[in-house]
Amino acid sequence: MPPAMPVLADDFFPALDERHDADDDPHSPPPLGAVTDGIKGRQTRSTPQPRLAAVGPQADAAQAQPGTQPGDGLLAVSNAAMAGISAVGLGFALAGRFLRIPRLPASIQGAVVALDHQPAVRRVLEEHIGKRATDTALGLAATAANALAGAPAMVAVDLAINSFRTAEARADARARSRREPVLARLTGRPDALPAPRVEPRSLSPVERHLQRNSWIQAIGAAAVGAAGRDANLAGNAALVTVPKAVRSTRESFAATLGRGLADRDEALQIDPDSLRRLDEIDVVILDPRVLRSDRVRLVRLRGAGEKDLTVWERAQAMLGDDDLRPGWHPVVGPRRSNGWSATEALFAPAPHPLAAATLAETQRAEVQVVSVDDPDGLGELRPAFDEIVALAGDSIEDTLLEAVRTYQQDGRSVAVVSSSATRALSAADLGVGILPERDDHPHPLGADLVVDDLAGVWRLLHAIPAAKEASRRGIELSTGATALGSLSLIPTVRGRGPEAVAVGAAAGLVSGYWSARSVLGAPLPRPVPVDEWHAMSVEQVRNALAATSDPAAAPEAAAPKQRGMLRQFVVAVREELADPLTPVLGLGATATAILGSPIDAGLVCSVLVSNAFLAAGQRLSTELRLNRLLAEQIPPAWKVTLGPDGTRERVQVLPEQLRRGDLIEVGPDDVVPVDARLVELEKLEVDEASLTGESLPVTKQIDATPGAEVAERRCMLFAGTTVVAGTGLALVTAVGPDTEVRRAADLVTSRHSDIGLGHQLGQITNRIWPLSMVAGGLVSALGVLRGTALQRAAADSVGVAVAAVPEGMPVVATLAQHASAQRLTNSGVLVRVPRSVEALGRVDVVCFDKTGTLSENRLQVTEVRTVAEHSREELLRCAARATPPAKDHGHADATDAAIVAAAESVPGALAAEPADAHLPFRSGRPFAASVFGTELTIKGAPEVVLAASMDVPAELYDLVEQLAADGLRVLAVARRDLDDEQLRSLSADADDPDAQLNALTKLCDDGLTLLGFVGISDTPRAGSAGLLAELHRRQVPVRMITGDHPTTGRAIARKMGLPVTPEQVITGMEWEALSAKEQERAVAERVVFARMSPANKVQVVQALERSGKVSAMVGDGANDAAAIRAATVGIGIVAQGSDAAHTAADVVLLDGKI
To answer: Where is the region Disordered (predicted)?
Structure first.
């Protein structure tokens, strides 16, 4: 007897546990039921029961309540039996219709089916016989009633639901069979597991709908039955208000997801209902220990040698000690007696390679993410958390449990992810346990779901928004089916009400299935490398890459997949139809057609479809135009290979063919294809403005730069930057999406759907729809009172309700936006997303990148300060003569080009003949010098030139600091006259080519006459200051986000009219130390965000969006692309930046005019 199976299971498996505990052989393997009961340590959470502190078979028997134990196998049998009974019922219903067998009255059918969807009735039954037995009993009764009443469509839906459940249970049983050796380790039982929750939680949207619907069902059926004095009419009224689509959608989604996870061994359900609670979760608490990897890394130094590179290298060498544990350790080595003993190194666990992706997925899931302030430090992961709970005492587990209870007291539904916090897992509404890799590690007892690693956690988090969307769609389908089915209660309207409910439920089955398949089909995130290559020596980098590089051949370059135009158009139309007005108008059109006005329904549908076609065509046209304007050519890379005899060979490859550990060569004008660690270089300078926003070229070096921000990692090459001068060899450390510039894209959740007039109309419609329904009901009632036919009165009611929906407005809005986009195009503005035109009018705050956006990324001399009697012309002449000669394409260094441009108006500044000798800039020599005849001219770093100059007043040092505080790059200019002996020392020697340079360097060490200083800065873009002033006049706040130094950023902001105090400036390092809530406060108070990486820029925009601001992001470089995509309105500038910014933007400024 299938209905009794769940009850038998409750008696059978505690008995098995007793038999196992009484077994004389302690080494005999436990039955799987006992194993999973040991993991679970509690019953299904749908009916929470008091936790018993006792353990052992007696406690288990006392605690057991009617319900199927996880993993017992009878769940699959029970579901299969229910599916079989549903199949028999379907056959009987079809035969009854064909043979015209007398049917069960609708009054009885409606009463039985309604009981299955009354939460109060189910709650009473579950308290007495358990959830599974209640599901079985009510399911059998409903199936029998529908079969006897000749409703094959309703029975077919029941058959489909039970088939989904059966497939899920069988897949789960197979997974348990495969994993029984693993589950056998989890037989230990904790002394006491707390109850799932003490405080009642807020009702989920599904529960609110079911509760509300139960009252509508009861009152509506009674009212209709009383009005018509017909019990069968009351039964039909109860049937049409059955929220069957809610259950079918939810069950289809959860069962498909559970089957897929089990077949892939990605997750194992200990509680069979765990996946059905995903849509209720709004808080995720992550145990900080699951975000760590087994590797230890060096974080920072403190003490006497914290800035000594040798001390850093020695501390890095300590990582080779297998016994090294996290915490502070003294740096030891051969120089201990010279001060290393006073230096300590902080070592901490490196983040798990999937930690960043997991946290990013919580943002996509739109849940609050919480963790504990780990003593070992959360490091760069801190900004991803909405709240970080202070550690209570020394116990992370106690703190996790306290956090769970705190959020539950606020009515929140809490999920906990941990590998060992047993009590927190048990107390949570959904406990996700991560199995340990080693048998001697703690196990996740008390979990509802068990996964192997963070990849499984990521998949579950990825399913949360899909689960919420499936529930929302089920509610919409149920509401629509009820509304349409109610029309069939009118005697003159053809059709039966329950058929609409069955159609809605079938649509829910399909919708839930495809939603789950989309979750399962999503590719797992890439593990993010956690190595700090910039902090390692070249030898350490070589060793680390040799240990981690894949010895397989480099992957073949894959051709990008291009969608056909027809498919692109279909996808665009589908996206346009995903509008808030579409369900309302579709429901109204269908109701109109049912009531006998198909022409009106066709007109409404034609409006919907034509609007979608028009908007989709406009979008594709814009994309094609942009692709033609911004066709990007991928530059090749030069891979260096070593031949058998040690010779180097250069091979040209595509960037996609490179892999970690490869050796590449870069030269002048090359675009760096990957992230790489330099191992050799020759006078290498790189323009990193596209990544860091730094206007000046960066002089590269081989020595490590530990503890440095991205903009100061001079030993690294970054993808997307451009080599200005020199050459270099580098080891590839990251390719493709793992590069610094593209890693920020993983932080972006999705494009905003709440922009545009369509969304605003949808919100308005949602507010007035209930009022219009009431008005329609009053019209219908008045019509009936005046003797109008019921069908006509209902049609008038539907007409009034639908008339409240502005179905013509989407077309009008689309046409208006299209016209605005066309006018803007004539002004050099390309609108890729038409809805953004309207959203621009609602922007609350505008974020600007500095370099290339507010400025032109072109250096110019903006300040000339002379000393004593020296003139401005003399200073510029000497500065220009100290620059190297220009090449065919101009000066390689932007600073030299700016000085030469400033000196063009000075007679004799630009020598017609080359210098007799020239000393160029290089790493470790921050100046350049030239000799023309008997005159030596030099320009360079003020601290070096001032030290070599004669009679320098002390106030000049203050002048240098003042110029630097104004955001200028300051160069000191000096000269000296050479005598004959000094000139002879500069004679070129063919046998010793470095002799001349060495002699010239020596002449620059002293005896110089200081002429003054030049200040160089980026050129402000025309109109930038006026734009900022206009925004200020309109009371629109501005945020400047730059990779520049804080002093430079503040100075530029002041020059452009933004009054900024030091307290309104924050750096990237300070930003990364904040939690998400603290970041929201920071974006409200700070104006200049300096030394910001691409990931930091995304976080700034996201913090603004989370705080309720409609933000716009304006940028031009690859480092701005992810932030542009994260903003409500993204604006890209076509200048010298990367095409990534343009393709991510909603609006593109084609002429570069801001």
So the answer is: 1-50
How many separate domains does the chain show?
5
* Helices H / strands E in the chain, number of each: 41, 31
Contacts of 892 (CB under 8 A, 6+ apart): 668, 685, 724, 725
Residue in 849, 966, 1116, 1139 annotated catalytic: 849
How far is C-alpha 184 from the chain's CA centre? 37
**Cβ neighbours of residue 412 closer than 8 Å, sequence gap 6 or more:** 201, 202, 282, 283, 368
Domain limits for position 76 = 2-275+460-520
Does this model's pTM top 0.70? My answer is: yes
1101 assigned to some structural domain: yes
Residue 195 and residue 150 in one domain: yes
pLDDT digits 0-9 by tens, 606-652:
777 777 787 777 677 766 665 555 444 557 789 998 777 778 888 88
Average pLDDT, whole number, for the chain?
79
Tell me how far apart the alpha carbons of residues 529 and 527 are, in angstroms, rounded to a whole number.
Answer: 6
Query: Is 384 within a domain?
Result: yes
Q: Are strands 1129-1133 and 267-269 parallel, antiparallel or unpaired?
A: unpaired
Please tell me the predicted confidence (pLDDT) of residue 790.
Answer: 63
26 class by beta-carbon count within 10 Å (0-12 exposed, 13-18 middle, 19+ buried): exposed
What is the dihedral sign for C-alpha 250, 253, 256, 257?
Answer: negative
Are 889 and 957 in the same domain? Answer: yes
Domain assignment of residue 810, yes or no: no
Helices (H), 264-318: 309-317
The length of the chain in residues reads 1154
Q: Is 1005 helix (H, G, I), strand (E, B) or coil?
A: coil
896 as an active site residue: the answer is no
Stated as kind and residue range, the H or E segment containing 474 is helix 454-487
Residue 197 and residue 323 in one domain: no
Residue type, 1148: V
Torsion of CA 649, 653, 659, 660, to 10 degrees: 50
Domain identity same for 719 and 832: no
Residues in Cβ contact with 1114 at an 8 Å cutoff, skipping those fewer than 6 apart: 846, 847, 848, 849, 853, 1131, 1132, 1133, 1154
pLDDT grade for 499, boundaries at 50, 70 and 90 = confident
Q: What is the torsion angle, in degrees rounded to the nearest 10, for the CA atoms of residue 543, residue 548, residue 550 and residue 555?
A: -100
Q: Identify whether residues 64 and 162 lie together within a single domain.
A: yes
Q: Do residues 936 and 976 make contact, with C-beta atoms less than 8 angstroms apart?
A: yes
Contact, 146 vs 112, CB < 8 A? no
User: Of 904, 905, 909, 890, which Cα lies nearest the Cα of 973?
Assistant: 909
d(CA 663, CA 641): 7
Residue 1100, classed as helix, strand or coil, is helix
Residues 882 and 963 in one domain: yes
Distance (Å, whole) CA 747 – CA 383: 11
Spell out the alpha helix ranges (H) of 179-230: 180-183, 205-228
Same domain, 1045 and 961: no
Virtual CA dihedral for 840, 845, 850, 852, nearest 10 degrees?
Answer: -10
733 close to 660: Cβ distance less than 8 angstroms: yes
DSSP string of 422-435? HHHHHHSSEEEEE-
